[in-house]
Write a structure and sequence with these properties.
By secondary structure, this protein is mainly beta. The chain contains 2 helices and 5 strands; from the N terminus they run ααβββββ.
């Protein structure tokens, strides 16, 4: 576990600012747009694409899956080295 002020989280594996609603997507992601070429994991959700500002050298893109209620259901971070990190909300999934 790591403890750090939310405003100082800049690690690609720490998307807490987005999940906690502590930021505006348009301020964090450059080129924010619909990613209509990427399938959402849940029908009815939409996909957004952007590149984290200040991290162009580390991330090739970030995909966000957004529910009809404007909640983030999934975050996919694609790094320039080809690695992919995915976060999913489990609030609506069966455990």
């Amino acid at each position: 576990m790591r403890k750090a002020p939310v405003r100082k989280l800049d690690d690609l594996r720490s998307p807490l600012r987005l999940l906690l609603g502590k930021t505006q997507l348009a301020k964090e992601l450059q080129g924010l747009s619909m990613a209509s070429d990427v399938a959402a994991s849940t029908p009815g959700n939409v996909m957004l694409r952007g590149i984290p500002k200040g991290m162009v050298d580390r991330a090739s893109q970030v995909l966000l899956e957004i529910t009809p209620e404007s909640q983030i259901a999934r975050i996919v971070i694609e790094e320039v080295d080809g690695s992919v990190t995915e976060y999913r909300s489990i609030s609506n999934e069966k455990m």
